Each structure stands twice: as structure tokens, then as C-alpha cells.
Automatic annotation (TrEMBL):
Name the record gives this protein: Protein FAR1-RELATED SEQUENCE
Keyword terms: Metal-binding, Nucleus, Zinc, Zinc-finger
Cross-referenced Pfam families: FAR1
FAR1 domain mapped to chain residues: 11-96
Superkingdom, taxonomy of origin: Eukaryota
Length: 462
């Protein structure tokens, strides 16, 4: 295939990638002086991630998966055209066209969007509100080719972590030396009543109502919101939750969190679990380094272990863990799996001691799997079909299309002149059509009145 410019080749392959369900990046470029001679464009999942430290502590997802898909292009010396010399179409990973719009390469902020973000930032409008205005104007999140994080990243607003807010809270109120708050912070990961550990709560806490529901709805409503406002905002809440789920699914599908250890059990969870749950598993695997396992009793494949966990320089917490090698069943006194569905560091320590390479399928819950089939996703949602008046709908469509035209025309003075000329011609044509229709509608209105009078005077017989 032959192209006029290098940009045309890159655009062609980028459009193909979006249709096929992946993204691209420039792998290598050879130059002669200031001119490019040839270039290699690959799938963005090309290459392999390698850790510079050991043990690996990286928990951010990586897309590198040694994907071979790529194209090679070079330029003809005499003609100046660009030719694709080699194409590799096979991928080392699945591609999903329906999720491609979530990839960073295929998300874009147009000039009008960027200007709106800048203006709203100067006016003190929060990024979430700015994004919601784009959603409403476009008629749904699926109509936008960017996500809320793109809006936040554009204005480079700093995200405050929990630790920073906690430290500021202690400093502002002079509570740095408060022992109770210090102990509370140290135990922040176990703010669950111990009596509920024997029940499966999927990680929910007793304070779920105040911490989760209130936090979620506070993005959309306030204590002064009326009932009518709540009903309207409730739809926005559902749309927001649906969009967050779509973004998480896309991240789980296209990226991989590297394993922190050489454990085959960790690799098993990496392949099955979503990023969020796999990070929890990795936290338990890292905590296993603080555990000392000792066999206390064993008979007929049933073993009892005492696992000591060092929580400070002089304090060890002891847990009793049982392992049935016949049933491949492991159970810890702490009941973390029974309450949250995640194997604890003590159970993992015993499995390592027993040289178990794969955990039983009963410890891999389908609800945490990235491949889970949710029944509700097959139900057609009405969130993306707002009820608008025909004129409002036409207006919104015209505004969005005109923004693209204006952005293209603003690139040069000549294009702007062409747009002004066409604009004047179109306005004259539309005014003439409107005037013509106005005269026709007046006659039609008179005819309708006459027909109505005649019908009243001589009603039709039934």
C-alpha cells in the first residue's frame, strides 16, 4: 500500500487498530539527517516488562505482552511516497473492538472541549461537573470519545491520598501525639468487627452505609436537594456507576499487573482476578514474608500449623492454620477468606510450606474474576437515550458537528474564509426555505380551519 505522507500511514494504522480492538505506538525510527527513512509501528502491547528491583513491588498494570503485531514502512527516494513493506496481523492477546474506545490512544479532547475545560477551571467548576456537562450535551457517556480522567489530567489537578489527608487532619487539630488515633491509623485495614468474620461480606464493613452510599451520592446531590432533584440525579448516579464498570472492564482486559514474586499461585490469581482484587492478593503475598510457619501435628494427610506473624520488632501474633492435602482445603483461624473471599498471608504461608503450586478452584471466586459474565449487562439500558424535544435534539447534534468544522477551519486563514463564505450561502438558503414553508403552512392552517368548520356543521355518520 502507498501513502502520500507518514502521517497518512500512521492515521490509517491507527484507524485499523481501533476497528480491530487494540492501540499502536511507534517502535523504532531510522533517519538520514533530519529526514525519516523508515519506521516500525507496533501494537502497544509489544515488548515485555522487566523489574529493575527484586522482589518486585510494582502493582500498577502493564500492557506489555510480547505482541508481534506490527507494520514496517519506508519512503521511496525519488517519489517521496510511503510504502508498507511488511505486515504482521497476529496478536499474542485477545482484541475487543467494543472496548477499544477506552484505550488512551483512541480518546481525544477536541479544541472546543479543551476550551470549555479551561474556562470551567477558571470559574472554579469541579472536573466531575465539567464532565457531566459534556455527558448531558452529548446525550450519554458512550457518545464521548474521552473519559472523566482525561478531563482531570488535562488540568493536572493533584490527587490527595488518604495518608496526606490523614496527616493534615492531625496537624490542623493538634492530634499528632494522640495515641488512640495513632493506633486507629495503624489498624485501618481491619476496621471490621471480629464477630462478623465467620460470615461472607465481600469486603463490606459495618460503616458501609456512611462510607460508601453517602460518598457515592454526595457527588450528585446535597442535603438541600429536593425530591424532584434527587429523582433526576439518581439517573446520573446509575450512569456514573455503569461507566466506571465499563472502564474497569477495559483496564482488566487490556493490561496486566506484573507478579511481585515467582509464585505460581500468584500467577494463577493474576490470570483470573480483576486488578482490584489481584492487588489485595499481592498484599497478602507480600505480608507472607513476615510469617514463620511451624508444623505442630500431622496425621493421614491432615496437618495443623502454627503461623507466627511479626507485627513489630518484639510482637508476634500466632494463628492456627489447618491443611487437608486430600481435599486440598486450607483454613486459617483469622477467617479472612470466609469473610472477604481472599486467602490470607497465613494460609498462603502454609501452602508454600506444603509446596502447593495451584490453589483449589474453590478459593478463586467467580465474583472477583475478570471473565465473569454479568447478567445485567445484557439488559438494554435507557440511560443513554435521554428524552429530548425534537428541536433540542437537533440543536445538540448541530452544535457538536459544528465544533468539529470550526476546529478544522481554524487551522488556517484560507479555511476560515471558505467557512464564512459557505456559512453565508447556507444561511440565505435556509431563510428562503423557512419563508417558503411559512407561506405554505399559513395556507394549510386556513384549509384546516375550513375543514374543521365543515366537519362540525356536517359531522360524519357512523
Amino acid at each position: 500500500m502507498t501513502f502520500t505522507t507518514l502521517e497518512d500511514v500512521e492515521k490509517f494504522y491507527r484507524n485499523y487498530a481501533k476497528a480491530a480492538g487494540f492501540s499502536t505506538r511507534v517502535r523504532s525510527t531510522n533517519r538520514k539527517g533530519n529526514k525519516i527513512k523508515n519506521q516500525s509501528i507496533t501494537c502497544s502491547r509489544e515488548g515485555k516488562w522487566k523489574s529493575k528491583i527484586f522482589p518486585t513491588e510494582k502493582t500498577n498494570p502493564t500492557a506489555s505482552l510480547n505482541c508481534p503485531a506490527r507494520i514496517y514502512i519506508y519512503t521511496l527516494k525519488d517519489v517521496g511516497a510511503w510504502i508498507i513493506s511488511k505486515v504482521v496481523l497476529d496478536h499474542s492477546h485477545p482484541c475487543c473492538p467494543s472496548k477499544a474506545e477506552m484505550l488512551k490512544q483512541h480518546r481525544k479532547l477536541s479544541m472546543s472541549i479543551r476550551r470549555t475545560i479551561e474556562n470551567n477551571e477558571e470559574a472554579g467548576i469541579r472536573p466531575s461537573k465539567t464532565y457531566q456537562s459534556f455527558v448531558v450535551a452529548a446525550g450519554g457517556r458512550r457518545e464521548l470519545n474521552f473519559i472523566e480522567n482525561d478531563v482531570r489530567n488535562y488540568i493536572t489537578r493533584e490527587v490527595h491520598s488518604f495518608d496526606r489527608n490523614w496527616n493534615e487532619f492531625l496537624l490542623n487539630f493538634g492530634l499528632v501525639d494522640n495515641k488512640w488515633l495513632s493506633d486507629l491509623y495503624e489498624d485501618r485495614h481491619i476496621w471490621v468487627p471480629i464477630y462478623l468474620d465467620h460470615n461472607f461480606w465481600t469486603g463490606m464493613r459495618s460503616t458501609q452505609r456512611s462510607e460508601s452510599m453517602h460518598s457515592f451520592f454526595n457527588k450528585f446531590i446535597t442535603q438541600n436537594s429536593s425530591l424532584i432533584q434527587f429523582v433526576k440525579k439518581y439517573d446520573n448516579c446509575l450512569r456514573s456507576r455503569e461507566q466506571a464498570e465499563r472502564e474497569s472492564d477495559a483496564a482488566d482486559f487490556y493490561t496486566v499487573i506484573p507478579c511481585a514474586t515467582k509464585s505460581s499461585i500468584e500467577a494463577q490469581f493474576q490470570d483470573m482476578y480483576t486488578h482490584q482484587k489481584f492487588r489485595e492478593v499481592q498484599a497478602q503475598l507480600r505480608g507472607k514474608a513476615n510469617c514463620i510457619t511451624r508444623l505442630t501435628n500431622s496425621a493421614l494427610g491432615y496437618s495443623v500449623y502454627e503461623v507466627g506473624e511479626q507485627v513489630s520488632s518484639s510482637i508476634f501474633n500466632k494463628f492456627v492454620v489447618t491443611y487437608d492435602s486430600v481435599a486440598a482445603d486450607v483454613k486459617c483461624q483469622g477467617l479472612l477468606f470466609e469473610s472477604r473471599g481472599i486467602l490470607c498471608r497465613h494460609a498462603l504461608s502454609v501452602l508454600s510450606f506444603e509446596q502447593v503450586s495451584q490453589v483449589s478452584p474453590r478459593y478463586i471466586l467467580e465474583r472477583w474474576s475478570k471473565k465473569v459474565k454479568r447478567r445485567h449487562t445484557h439488559i438494554k439500558s435507557s440511560h443513554n437515550e435521554p428524552l429530548l424535544e425534537p428541536r433540542s435534539k437537533r440543536f445538540d447534534e448541530l452544535v457538536f458537528r459544528s465544533q468539529n468544522v470550526c476546529e478544522f477551519a481554524s487551522e488556517s486563514k484560507e479555511l476560515t474564509v471558505i467557512l464564512h463564505r459557505v456559512y453565508g450561502t447556507v444561511m440565505v438558503e435556509m431563510k428562503e426555505l423557512k419563508a417558503k414553508r411559512k407561506g405554505t403552512s399559513s395556507l394549510s392552517h386556513e384549509d384546516a380551519n375550513l375543514e374543521s368548520v365543515n366537519e362540525l356543521q356536517s359531522p360524519p355518520r357512523i
